[in-house]
Known about the structure:
Structural class of chain B: alpha/beta
Number of helices of chain B: 3
Strand content of chain B: 15-25%
Shape of chain A: globular
CATH class of chain B: Alpha Beta
Helix content of chain A: 40-55%
Number of strands of chain B: 7
CATH topology of chain B: Beta Polymerase, domain 2
Radius of gyration of chain A: 24 Å
CATH superfamily of chain A: Cytochrome-c3 Hydrogenase, chain B
Low-confidence stretches of chain A: none
Largest sheet of chain B: 5 strands, mixed
Strand order of the largest sheet of chain A: 1-2-3
Oligomer: heterodimer
Strand order of the largest sheet of chain B: 1-2-5-4-3
Structural class of chain A: mainly alpha
Amino acid sequence: MQDHHIKLPEGGIEKHTNILNLGPTHPATHGVFQNIIELDGERIISAESTVGYIHRAFEKIAERRPLYQITPLTDRLNYCSAPINNIGWHLTCEKLLGIKTPKRVDYLRVIIMELARITDHLICNSIMGVDAGAYTGFLYLMQYRELAYEIYEEVCGSRLTTNIGRIGGFERNFSNTAFTKLEKFLNEYPKALDEFNTMLTRNRIFMERTMGVGGISAEKALNYGFTGPNLRAAGVDYDVRKISPYSSYEDFDFYIPVGTTGDCYDRFLVRDQEMKQSLEIIRQAYRKIQEFKGAEAEVYHAEVPEYYLPPKEDVYTKMEALIWHFKIIMGEVDMPKGEVYHSVEGANGELGFYLISDGGRTPYRLHFRRPCFIYYQAYEELVKNHLIADAIMVMSSLNLIAGEMDA
Amino acid sequence: MALTNEIVKQKLTEKFGDSVTNFEEPFGMLTFEAPKEMNLKVLQFLYDDETLGFRFLTDLTAVHYPDNPGRELAVVYHLHNLRENFRVRFKIFTSIENPDVFTATKLFAAANWMERETYDFYGVNFIGHPNLKRILNVDEMDYHPMRKEYPLEDRQRTDKDDEMFGRGEIFPNQA
Protein backbone atom coordinates (compact mmCIF):
# COMPACT_ATOMS: atom_id res chain seq x y z
CA MET A 1 0.00 0.00 0.00
CA GLN A 2 1.27 3.38 -0.99
CA ASP A 3 2.29 5.85 1.72
CA HIS A 4 0.25 9.05 1.30
CA HIS A 5 2.09 11.06 3.89
CA ILE A 6 4.08 13.91 2.51
CA LYS A 7 7.70 13.50 3.31
CA LEU A 8 9.44 16.81 3.88
CA PRO A 9 13.05 17.36 4.73
CA GLU A 10 13.92 18.05 8.36
CA GLY A 11 13.08 21.66 9.35
CA GLY A 12 11.17 22.07 6.07
CA ILE A 13 8.00 23.37 7.67
CA GLU A 14 8.27 26.84 9.02
CA LYS A 15 5.73 27.82 11.60
CA HIS A 16 3.96 30.95 10.55
CA THR A 17 0.80 32.85 11.41
CA ASN A 18 -2.00 33.97 9.13
CA ILE A 19 -3.47 37.41 8.83
CA LEU A 20 -7.21 37.59 8.33
CA ASN A 21 -9.22 40.67 7.47
CA LEU A 22 -12.57 40.57 9.20
CA GLY A 23 -14.44 43.45 7.66
CA PRO A 24 -15.00 46.22 6.72
CA THR A 25 -17.83 44.62 4.75
CA HIS A 26 -17.90 41.20 6.34
CA PRO A 27 -21.47 40.01 6.95
CA ALA A 28 -20.62 38.97 10.51
CA THR A 29 -19.45 42.39 11.62
CA HIS A 30 -23.01 43.77 11.29
CA GLY A 31 -21.60 47.17 10.45
CA VAL A 32 -18.75 48.83 8.66
CA PHE A 33 -15.57 48.34 10.64
CA GLN A 34 -12.52 46.22 10.24
CA ASN A 35 -10.62 43.81 12.43
CA ILE A 36 -7.24 42.62 11.28
CA ILE A 37 -6.68 39.36 13.09
CA GLU A 38 -3.44 37.43 13.39
CA LEU A 39 -4.14 33.73 13.61
CA ASP A 40 -2.18 30.73 14.70
CA GLY A 41 -4.34 28.01 13.23
CA GLU A 42 -7.74 29.00 14.57
CA ARG A 43 -6.44 30.79 17.63
CA ILE A 44 -6.20 34.58 17.70
CA ILE A 45 -2.79 35.91 18.64
CA SER A 46 -3.45 39.57 18.18
CA ALA A 47 -6.07 41.82 16.69
CA GLU A 48 -6.23 45.35 15.50
CA SER A 49 -9.43 47.28 14.95
CA THR A 50 -9.91 49.99 12.39
CA VAL A 51 -12.90 52.27 12.62
CA GLY A 52 -13.97 55.37 10.76
CA TYR A 53 -15.38 53.91 7.54
CA ILE A 54 -18.65 55.78 7.97
CA HIS A 55 -17.34 58.88 9.73
CA ARG A 56 -19.69 61.74 8.82
CA ALA A 57 -18.19 64.63 10.80
CA PHE A 58 -21.29 65.21 12.91
CA GLU A 59 -19.41 67.30 15.43
CA LYS A 60 -18.15 69.63 12.72
CA ILE A 61 -21.54 69.84 11.04
CA ALA A 62 -23.19 70.60 14.38
CA GLU A 63 -21.07 73.73 14.75
CA ARG A 64 -23.03 75.27 11.90
CA ARG A 65 -26.48 74.09 12.83
CA PRO A 66 -29.10 75.46 15.19
CA LEU A 67 -30.35 73.12 17.91
CA TYR A 68 -33.27 71.57 16.03
CA GLN A 69 -31.19 70.72 13.01
CA ILE A 70 -28.84 68.69 15.20
CA THR A 71 -31.56 66.26 16.29
CA PRO A 72 -31.52 64.36 12.97
CA LEU A 73 -27.75 63.98 13.34
CA THR A 74 -28.21 62.24 16.68
CA ASP A 75 -30.60 59.77 15.01
CA ARG A 76 -27.70 58.40 13.11
CA LEU A 77 -25.48 57.63 16.07
CA ASN A 78 -27.03 54.49 17.48
CA TYR A 79 -29.69 53.95 14.86
CA CYS A 80 -31.10 50.91 16.68
CA SER A 81 -32.37 53.17 19.46
CA ALA A 82 -32.63 56.58 17.83
CA PRO A 83 -35.33 57.97 20.19
CA ILE A 84 -32.96 57.76 23.17
CA ASN A 85 -30.42 59.86 21.27
CA ASN A 86 -33.07 62.39 20.22
CA ILE A 87 -34.51 62.77 23.68
CA GLY A 88 -31.04 62.84 25.23
CA TRP A 89 -30.14 65.72 22.96
CA HIS A 90 -33.36 67.58 23.76
CA LEU A 91 -32.72 67.07 27.47
CA THR A 92 -29.26 68.61 26.99
CA CYS A 93 -30.78 71.62 25.24
CA GLU A 94 -33.36 71.95 28.00
CA LYS A 95 -30.60 71.91 30.60
CA LEU A 96 -28.81 74.73 28.79
CA LEU A 97 -31.98 76.73 28.26
CA GLY A 98 -33.33 76.10 31.77
CA ILE A 99 -36.58 74.50 30.64
CA LYS A 100 -38.59 72.43 33.08
CA THR A 101 -40.84 69.82 31.51
CA PRO A 102 -44.22 68.76 32.92
CA LYS A 103 -44.48 65.32 34.53
CA ARG A 104 -46.67 63.92 31.78
CA VAL A 105 -44.04 64.79 29.19
CA ASP A 106 -41.40 63.03 31.28
CA TYR A 107 -43.50 59.88 31.48
CA LEU A 108 -44.26 59.89 27.76
CA ARG A 109 -40.55 60.26 27.12
CA VAL A 110 -39.78 57.39 29.46
CA ILE A 111 -42.19 55.17 27.50
CA ILE A 112 -40.52 56.01 24.21
CA MET A 113 -36.99 55.67 25.59
CA GLU A 114 -37.70 52.29 27.17
CA LEU A 115 -39.32 51.07 23.96
CA ALA A 116 -36.14 52.10 22.19
CA ARG A 117 -34.05 50.23 24.73
CA ILE A 118 -36.11 47.11 24.17
CA THR A 119 -35.78 47.32 20.39
CA ASP A 120 -32.03 47.76 20.72
CA HIS A 121 -31.49 44.88 23.14
CA LEU A 122 -33.86 42.73 21.13
CA ILE A 123 -31.69 43.13 18.05
CA CYS A 124 -28.46 42.57 19.94
CA ASN A 125 -29.64 39.39 21.64
CA SER A 126 -31.26 37.92 18.58
CA ILE A 127 -28.18 38.72 16.50
CA MET A 128 -26.15 36.81 19.06
CA GLY A 129 -28.42 33.90 18.29
CA VAL A 130 -27.80 34.36 14.56
CA ASP A 131 -24.06 34.34 15.05
CA ALA A 132 -24.32 31.17 17.10
CA GLY A 133 -26.33 29.55 14.31
CA ALA A 134 -29.96 30.14 15.32
CA TYR A 135 -31.54 32.38 12.71
CA THR A 136 -35.15 31.72 13.64
CA GLY A 137 -35.20 33.73 16.85
CA PHE A 138 -34.02 36.81 15.03
CA LEU A 139 -36.75 36.70 12.44
CA TYR A 140 -39.33 35.90 15.10
CA LEU A 141 -38.42 38.81 17.39
CA MET A 142 -38.14 41.19 14.47
CA GLN A 143 -41.94 41.11 14.18
CA TYR A 144 -42.18 42.60 17.64
CA ARG A 145 -39.73 45.36 16.85
CA GLU A 146 -42.20 46.20 14.12
CA LEU A 147 -44.88 46.74 16.78
CA ALA A 148 -42.61 49.18 18.60
CA TYR A 149 -41.78 50.98 15.36
CA GLU A 150 -45.48 51.38 14.67
CA ILE A 151 -45.77 53.24 17.96
CA TYR A 152 -42.96 55.62 16.96
CA GLU A 153 -44.68 56.07 13.63
CA GLU A 154 -47.89 57.01 15.38
CA VAL A 155 -46.08 59.59 17.51
CA CYS A 156 -43.61 61.17 15.10
CA GLY A 157 -44.24 59.76 11.66
CA SER A 158 -40.98 57.93 11.14
CA ARG A 159 -39.57 54.61 12.16
CA LEU A 160 -35.82 54.06 12.12
CA THR A 161 -34.27 57.50 12.28
CA THR A 162 -37.08 58.98 14.23
CA ASN A 163 -36.23 62.65 14.90
CA ILE A 164 -38.80 62.28 17.65
CA GLY A 165 -39.89 65.04 20.00
CA ARG A 166 -39.10 68.70 20.39
CA ILE A 167 -37.30 70.82 22.92
CA GLY A 168 -39.80 70.80 25.77
CA GLY A 169 -41.81 67.74 24.80
CA PHE A 170 -43.38 66.05 21.81
CA GLU A 171 -44.57 67.35 18.48
CA ARG A 172 -48.10 66.06 19.12
CA ASN A 173 -50.04 64.31 21.79
CA PHE A 174 -50.07 60.52 21.76
CA SER A 175 -53.18 59.40 19.91
CA ASN A 176 -55.47 56.67 21.18
CA THR A 177 -54.08 54.45 18.45
CA ALA A 178 -50.60 54.91 19.91
CA PHE A 179 -51.79 53.75 23.30
CA THR A 180 -53.67 50.83 21.78
CA LYS A 181 -50.53 49.81 19.96
CA LEU A 182 -48.55 50.17 23.16
CA GLU A 183 -50.99 47.87 24.95
CA LYS A 184 -50.69 45.36 22.14
CA PHE A 185 -46.91 45.46 22.44
CA LEU A 186 -47.03 45.08 26.22
CA ASN A 187 -49.35 42.09 25.88
CA GLU A 188 -47.61 40.26 23.09
CA TYR A 189 -43.93 40.95 23.49
CA PRO A 190 -43.29 39.27 26.89
CA LYS A 191 -44.67 35.98 25.54
CA ALA A 192 -42.46 36.16 22.48
CA LEU A 193 -39.46 37.02 24.62
CA ASP A 194 -40.13 33.99 26.79
CA GLU A 195 -40.31 31.78 23.74
CA PHE A 196 -37.07 33.26 22.48
CA ASN A 197 -35.43 32.58 25.83
CA THR A 198 -36.65 29.00 25.83
CA MET A 199 -34.73 28.58 22.64
CA LEU A 200 -31.45 30.16 23.77
CA THR A 201 -30.94 30.75 27.48
CA ARG A 202 -30.51 27.12 28.51
CA ASN A 203 -29.53 25.90 25.08
CA ARG A 204 -26.43 23.74 25.36
CA ILE A 205 -24.90 24.91 22.09
CA PHE A 206 -25.53 28.56 22.84
CA MET A 207 -24.16 28.28 26.36
CA GLU A 208 -21.01 26.56 25.21
CA ARG A 209 -20.47 29.20 22.58
CA THR A 210 -20.91 32.13 24.96
CA MET A 211 -19.89 31.11 28.48
CA GLY A 212 -16.34 32.05 29.35
CA VAL A 213 -15.92 33.83 26.03
CA GLY A 214 -14.78 37.44 25.99
CA GLY A 215 -14.96 37.93 29.75
CA ILE A 216 -13.69 41.05 31.44
CA SER A 217 -13.19 41.89 35.11
CA ALA A 218 -14.99 44.80 36.74
CA GLU A 219 -11.80 46.83 37.29
CA LYS A 220 -10.67 46.34 33.72
CA ALA A 221 -14.09 47.22 32.37
CA LEU A 222 -14.12 50.45 34.38
CA ASN A 223 -10.61 51.30 33.27
CA TYR A 224 -11.63 50.76 29.67
CA GLY A 225 -14.55 53.13 30.13
CA PHE A 226 -17.24 50.47 29.70
CA THR A 227 -20.76 51.60 30.47
CA GLY A 228 -24.21 50.16 29.98
CA PRO A 229 -25.06 46.45 29.78
CA ASN A 230 -21.46 45.51 29.04
CA LEU A 231 -20.24 47.07 32.29
CA ARG A 232 -23.16 45.69 34.27
CA ALA A 233 -22.39 42.20 32.95
CA ALA A 234 -18.99 42.58 34.62
CA GLY A 235 -20.73 43.26 37.93
CA VAL A 236 -20.83 47.05 38.32
CA ASP A 237 -24.32 48.40 38.92
CA TYR A 238 -23.73 51.70 37.16
CA ASP A 239 -26.81 52.99 35.42
CA VAL A 240 -27.37 56.67 34.66
CA ARG A 241 -31.11 56.21 35.13
CA LYS A 242 -30.54 55.28 38.78
CA ILE A 243 -27.45 57.24 39.69
CA SER A 244 -28.46 60.61 38.25
CA PRO A 245 -32.08 60.32 37.17
CA TYR A 246 -33.31 62.43 34.28
CA SER A 247 -36.83 62.69 32.87
CA SER A 248 -38.33 61.61 36.24
CA TYR A 249 -36.79 58.14 36.32
CA GLU A 250 -36.76 58.51 40.10
CA ASP A 251 -40.54 57.96 40.08
CA PHE A 252 -40.18 54.42 38.79
CA ASP A 253 -39.53 51.23 40.63
CA PHE A 254 -37.03 49.03 38.82
CA TYR A 255 -33.75 47.28 39.51
CA ILE A 256 -30.47 47.03 37.67
CA PRO A 257 -29.53 43.51 36.62
CA VAL A 258 -25.82 42.72 36.98
CA GLY A 259 -23.67 39.82 35.89
CA THR A 260 -20.48 38.43 37.38
CA THR A 261 -17.95 37.39 34.76
CA GLY A 262 -18.62 39.93 32.04
CA ASP A 263 -18.55 37.26 29.33
CA CYS A 264 -20.84 37.00 26.33
CA TYR A 265 -23.39 34.90 28.21
CA ASP A 266 -23.62 37.45 31.03
CA ARG A 267 -24.05 40.25 28.55
CA PHE A 268 -26.87 38.28 26.94
CA LEU A 269 -28.57 37.70 30.29
CA VAL A 270 -28.17 41.31 31.42
CA ARG A 271 -29.75 42.59 28.22
CA ASP A 272 -32.54 40.07 28.57
CA GLN A 273 -33.32 41.13 32.14
CA GLU A 274 -33.11 44.78 31.17
CA MET A 275 -35.80 44.24 28.56
CA LYS A 276 -38.03 42.85 31.30
CA GLN A 277 -37.26 45.83 33.53
CA SER A 278 -37.99 48.18 30.65
CA LEU A 279 -41.37 46.52 30.11
CA GLU A 280 -42.05 47.00 33.82
CA ILE A 281 -41.09 50.70 33.59
CA ILE A 282 -43.35 51.18 30.57
CA ARG A 283 -46.27 49.60 32.44
CA GLN A 284 -45.69 51.90 35.41
CA ALA A 285 -45.40 54.96 33.17
CA TYR A 286 -48.56 54.04 31.28
CA ARG A 287 -50.42 53.65 34.57
CA LYS A 288 -49.15 57.05 35.74
CA ILE A 289 -50.22 58.67 32.48
CA GLN A 290 -53.74 57.31 32.85
CA GLU A 291 -53.96 58.95 36.27
CA PHE A 292 -53.75 62.48 34.82
CA LYS A 293 -57.16 64.11 34.71
CA GLY A 294 -58.68 67.11 32.96
CA ALA A 295 -56.37 69.64 31.34
CA GLU A 296 -53.30 67.88 32.71
CA ALA A 297 -54.10 64.80 30.67
CA GLU A 298 -53.64 66.81 27.48
CA VAL A 299 -50.21 68.24 28.26
CA TYR A 300 -47.54 67.04 25.87
CA HIS A 301 -45.01 69.87 25.84
CA ALA A 302 -43.62 72.63 28.05
CA GLU A 303 -44.57 76.25 27.39
CA VAL A 304 -41.43 77.49 25.62
CA PRO A 305 -42.58 79.63 22.67
CA GLU A 306 -38.99 80.53 21.75
CA TYR A 307 -38.14 76.91 21.02
CA TYR A 308 -41.40 75.02 20.60
CA LEU A 309 -43.05 75.31 17.20
CA PRO A 310 -46.50 76.94 17.30
CA PRO A 311 -49.51 74.86 16.14
CA LYS A 312 -49.82 74.65 12.38
CA GLU A 313 -53.32 76.25 12.29
CA ASP A 314 -51.89 79.34 13.97
CA VAL A 315 -48.94 79.49 11.59
CA TYR A 316 -51.36 79.74 8.67
CA THR A 317 -53.60 82.34 10.27
CA LYS A 318 -51.62 84.43 12.76
CA MET A 319 -48.69 86.71 12.06
CA GLU A 320 -46.95 86.18 15.39
CA ALA A 321 -47.07 82.41 15.08
CA LEU A 322 -45.72 82.59 11.52
CA ILE A 323 -42.78 84.70 12.67
CA TRP A 324 -41.91 82.27 15.46
CA HIS A 325 -42.28 79.33 13.15
CA PHE A 326 -39.81 80.92 10.76
CA LYS A 327 -37.38 81.93 13.48
CA ILE A 328 -37.34 78.47 15.04
CA ILE A 329 -37.01 76.63 11.73
CA MET A 330 -34.20 78.90 10.56
CA GLY A 331 -32.57 78.78 13.99
CA GLU A 332 -32.58 82.52 14.51
CA VAL A 333 -32.89 82.31 18.25
CA ASP A 334 -29.73 83.03 20.23
CA MET A 335 -28.77 80.49 22.88
CA PRO A 336 -27.56 81.54 26.32
CA LYS A 337 -23.84 81.18 26.95
CA GLY A 338 -22.86 78.09 28.81
CA GLU A 339 -21.07 74.79 29.08
CA VAL A 340 -23.19 71.71 29.65
CA TYR A 341 -22.52 68.03 29.99
CA HIS A 342 -25.60 65.88 30.08
CA SER A 343 -25.79 62.13 29.82
CA VAL A 344 -28.55 59.61 29.42
CA GLU A 345 -28.48 55.85 29.67
CA GLY A 346 -28.38 54.84 26.04
CA ALA A 347 -28.92 51.25 25.01
CA ASN A 348 -25.15 50.77 24.88
CA GLY A 349 -24.20 52.83 27.90
CA GLU A 350 -23.69 56.39 28.95
CA LEU A 351 -24.51 58.60 25.99
CA GLY A 352 -23.15 62.04 26.80
CA PHE A 353 -23.52 65.41 25.12
CA TYR A 354 -20.88 68.02 25.87
CA LEU A 355 -22.20 71.32 24.55
CA ILE A 356 -20.39 74.65 24.66
CA SER A 357 -22.40 77.67 23.63
CA ASP A 358 -20.81 81.07 23.08
CA GLY A 359 -24.15 82.83 22.86
CA GLY A 360 -24.52 82.30 19.12
CA ARG A 361 -27.26 80.44 17.31
CA THR A 362 -25.25 77.28 16.83
CA PRO A 363 -23.10 75.37 19.33
CA TYR A 364 -19.50 76.55 19.59
CA ARG A 365 -18.49 72.96 20.21
CA LEU A 366 -20.53 69.81 20.54
CA HIS A 367 -19.00 66.51 21.51
CA PHE A 368 -20.83 63.21 21.68
CA ARG A 369 -19.63 60.71 24.24
CA ARG A 370 -20.37 57.56 22.28
CA PRO A 371 -20.26 54.49 24.53
CA CYS A 372 -19.63 52.14 21.63
CA PHE A 373 -16.52 53.97 20.48
CA ILE A 374 -15.04 53.86 23.96
CA TYR A 375 -15.58 50.21 24.78
CA TYR A 376 -14.69 48.87 21.36
CA GLN A 377 -11.01 49.52 22.08
CA ALA A 378 -11.10 46.63 24.55
CA TYR A 379 -11.97 44.24 21.72
CA GLU A 380 -8.33 43.47 20.94
CA GLU A 381 -7.82 42.29 24.48
CA LEU A 382 -11.14 40.47 24.74
CA VAL A 383 -10.53 38.16 21.79
CA LYS A 384 -6.89 37.37 22.45
CA ASN A 385 -6.30 33.59 22.75
CA HIS A 386 -9.85 32.82 21.68
CA LEU A 387 -10.94 30.99 18.57
CA ILE A 388 -11.97 32.92 15.51
CA ALA A 389 -15.60 31.82 15.93
CA ASP A 390 -15.52 33.36 19.42
CA ALA A 391 -14.35 36.67 18.01
CA ILE A 392 -17.65 36.89 16.14
CA MET A 393 -19.62 36.14 19.29
CA VAL A 394 -17.71 38.79 21.24
CA MET A 395 -18.41 41.31 18.52
CA SER A 396 -22.14 40.70 18.46
CA SER A 397 -22.42 40.54 22.25
CA LEU A 398 -20.78 43.96 22.62
CA ASN A 399 -23.48 45.39 20.35
CA LEU A 400 -21.14 47.41 18.18
CA ILE A 401 -23.01 49.96 16.12
CA ALA A 402 -20.82 51.49 13.44
CA GLY A 403 -22.88 54.68 13.34
CA GLU A 404 -22.25 55.33 16.99
CA MET A 405 -18.58 54.47 16.77
CA ASP A 406 -17.77 56.80 13.93
CA ALA A 407 -20.12 59.70 14.64
CA MET B 1 -18.96 62.18 53.84
CA ALA B 2 -20.48 63.13 50.59
CA LEU B 3 -18.28 64.96 48.15
CA THR B 4 -19.08 68.56 47.35
CA ASN B 5 -17.54 71.08 45.02
CA GLU B 6 -16.01 72.84 48.05
CA ILE B 7 -14.23 69.72 49.30
CA VAL B 8 -12.71 68.99 45.89
CA LYS B 9 -11.69 72.60 45.50
CA GLN B 10 -10.12 72.69 48.95
CA LYS B 11 -8.24 69.42 48.40
CA LEU B 12 -6.84 70.63 45.10
CA THR B 13 -5.78 73.97 46.53
CA GLU B 14 -4.08 72.23 49.47
CA LYS B 15 -2.13 69.96 47.17
CA PHE B 16 -1.30 72.22 44.25
CA GLY B 17 -1.58 75.73 45.67
CA ASP B 18 -2.10 78.37 43.05
CA SER B 19 -1.34 76.08 40.11
CA VAL B 20 -4.92 74.89 39.88
CA THR B 21 -6.97 77.88 38.84
CA ASN B 22 -10.17 79.14 37.24
CA PHE B 23 -12.64 77.32 39.44
CA GLU B 24 -16.11 77.58 37.97
CA GLU B 25 -19.37 75.76 38.41
CA PRO B 26 -21.34 75.86 35.17
CA PHE B 27 -24.62 73.98 35.75
CA GLY B 28 -23.26 72.64 39.02
CA MET B 29 -20.27 70.80 37.60
CA LEU B 30 -16.98 71.87 39.16
CA THR B 31 -14.61 72.97 36.40
CA PHE B 32 -10.95 73.86 36.93
CA GLU B 33 -7.77 74.36 35.04
CA ALA B 34 -4.10 73.47 35.51
CA PRO B 35 -0.91 74.14 33.56
CA LYS B 36 -0.47 71.53 30.85
CA GLU B 37 2.76 70.15 32.33
CA MET B 38 0.83 69.20 35.43
CA ASN B 39 -2.06 67.33 33.83
CA LEU B 40 -0.82 63.88 34.86
CA LYS B 41 -0.01 64.97 38.41
CA VAL B 42 -3.51 66.37 38.85
CA LEU B 43 -5.17 63.34 37.24
CA GLN B 44 -3.10 60.98 39.38
CA PHE B 45 -3.98 62.91 42.53
CA LEU B 46 -7.67 62.88 41.65
CA TYR B 47 -7.39 59.14 40.99
CA ASP B 48 -5.42 58.14 44.08
CA ASP B 49 -6.82 60.34 46.82
CA GLU B 50 -9.07 58.40 49.19
CA THR B 51 -11.86 60.94 49.39
CA LEU B 52 -11.70 62.10 45.78
CA GLY B 53 -11.35 58.79 43.91
CA PHE B 54 -12.09 59.99 40.38
CA ARG B 55 -11.37 56.65 38.75
CA PHE B 56 -13.64 56.73 35.76
CA LEU B 57 -12.74 58.73 32.69
CA THR B 58 -16.08 59.63 31.15
CA ASP B 59 -14.90 61.76 28.31
CA LEU B 60 -11.81 63.33 26.82
CA THR B 61 -11.97 65.88 24.06
CA ALA B 62 -10.57 69.19 22.87
CA VAL B 63 -11.89 72.62 22.01
CA HIS B 64 -10.28 75.17 19.72
CA TYR B 65 -10.28 78.86 20.68
CA PRO B 66 -8.45 80.66 17.85
CA ASP B 67 -8.70 84.03 19.62
CA ASN B 68 -6.71 82.99 22.72
CA PRO B 69 -3.05 83.48 21.79
CA GLY B 70 -0.89 80.85 23.50
CA ARG B 71 -3.97 79.02 24.77
CA GLU B 72 -5.64 78.01 21.54
CA LEU B 73 -6.38 74.40 22.34
CA ALA B 74 -8.18 73.20 25.44
CA VAL B 75 -8.08 69.52 26.36
CA VAL B 76 -11.11 68.68 28.48
CA TYR B 77 -11.36 65.66 30.79
CA HIS B 78 -14.65 64.65 32.33
CA LEU B 79 -14.00 62.54 35.40
CA HIS B 80 -16.48 60.59 37.46
CA ASN B 81 -16.36 59.24 40.98
CA LEU B 82 -18.80 56.35 40.63
CA ARG B 83 -19.02 55.54 44.32
CA GLU B 84 -20.17 59.04 45.27
CA ASN B 85 -21.69 59.79 41.87
CA PHE B 86 -19.76 63.00 41.52
CA ARG B 87 -18.42 64.53 38.34
CA VAL B 88 -15.75 67.14 37.67
CA ARG B 89 -14.42 68.75 34.52
CA PHE B 90 -10.70 69.35 34.24
CA LYS B 91 -9.15 71.51 31.52
CA ILE B 92 -5.67 72.20 30.31
CA PHE B 93 -4.74 74.77 27.70
CA THR B 94 -1.94 74.53 25.18
CA SER B 95 -0.65 76.67 22.36
CA ILE B 96 -1.31 75.51 18.84
CA GLU B 97 2.34 75.78 17.76
CA ASN B 98 3.47 73.39 20.44
CA PRO B 99 0.50 71.15 21.25
CA ASP B 100 2.39 68.62 23.40
CA VAL B 101 0.42 67.13 26.27
CA PHE B 102 1.21 64.07 28.39
CA THR B 103 -0.93 61.05 27.72
CA ALA B 104 -3.37 59.65 30.26
CA THR B 105 -3.31 56.14 28.79
CA LYS B 106 -1.23 54.74 31.67
CA LEU B 107 -3.95 55.77 34.08
CA PHE B 108 -7.03 55.05 31.97
CA ALA B 109 -7.06 52.46 29.20
CA ALA B 110 -10.13 54.26 27.90
CA ALA B 111 -8.01 57.30 27.04
CA ASN B 112 -6.30 55.43 24.22
CA TRP B 113 -8.85 55.93 21.47
CA MET B 114 -10.18 59.16 22.89
CA GLU B 115 -6.72 60.67 22.65
CA ARG B 116 -6.33 59.31 19.15
CA GLU B 117 -9.61 60.98 18.24
CA THR B 118 -8.47 64.25 19.82
CA TYR B 119 -5.18 64.05 17.93
CA ASP B 120 -6.99 63.26 14.72
CA PHE B 121 -9.35 66.23 14.92
CA TYR B 122 -7.31 68.85 16.78
CA GLY B 123 -3.70 67.81 16.43
CA VAL B 124 -3.00 67.58 20.15
CA ASN B 125 0.24 65.61 20.40
CA PHE B 126 -0.06 63.20 23.32
CA ILE B 127 3.45 62.42 24.50
CA GLY B 128 3.91 58.79 25.47
CA HIS B 129 0.81 57.51 23.71
CA PRO B 130 1.39 53.91 22.56
CA ASN B 131 -0.20 54.31 19.13
CA LEU B 132 -0.87 57.92 18.26
CA LYS B 133 -2.27 57.84 14.75
CA ARG B 134 -5.47 58.94 13.07
CA ILE B 135 -8.56 57.00 13.97
CA LEU B 136 -11.65 58.28 12.16
CA ASN B 137 -10.10 60.17 9.27
CA VAL B 138 -7.95 58.69 6.52
CA ASP B 139 -4.25 58.33 7.30
CA GLU B 140 -3.27 60.52 4.35
CA MET B 141 -5.07 63.58 5.71
CA ASP B 142 -2.56 66.33 6.45
CA TYR B 143 -4.58 68.71 8.61
CA HIS B 144 -6.78 68.56 11.71
CA PRO B 145 -10.30 69.23 10.51
CA MET B 146 -12.10 70.27 13.69
CA ARG B 147 -9.96 73.38 14.09
CA LYS B 148 -11.91 76.52 13.51
CA GLU B 149 -9.85 77.68 10.54
CA TYR B 150 -11.45 75.00 8.41
CA PRO B 151 -14.94 76.19 7.62
CA LEU B 152 -17.54 73.57 7.01
CA GLU B 153 -18.77 74.86 3.70
CA ASP B 154 -17.33 76.16 0.50
CA ARG B 155 -15.98 79.63 1.18
CA GLN B 156 -17.12 80.81 -2.23
CA ARG B 157 -20.72 80.59 -1.14
CA THR B 158 -22.19 83.96 -0.40
CA ASP B 159 -25.73 82.97 0.47
CA LYS B 160 -24.80 81.54 3.86
CA ASP B 161 -22.37 83.66 5.85
CA ASP B 162 -21.64 83.53 9.53
CA GLU B 163 -23.60 86.66 10.29
CA MET B 164 -26.69 84.55 9.68
CA PHE B 165 -25.63 82.55 12.72
CA GLY B 166 -25.19 85.58 14.94
CA ARG B 167 -21.41 85.58 15.03
CA GLY B 168 -20.20 88.12 12.52
CA GLU B 169 -16.79 87.59 11.00
CA ILE B 170 -14.93 84.79 12.68
CA PHE B 171 -12.45 84.11 9.90
CA PRO B 172 -11.45 87.65 8.90
CA ASN B 173 -8.27 86.57 7.12
CA GLN B 174 -10.00 84.25 4.77
CA ALA B 175 -12.72 86.51 3.45
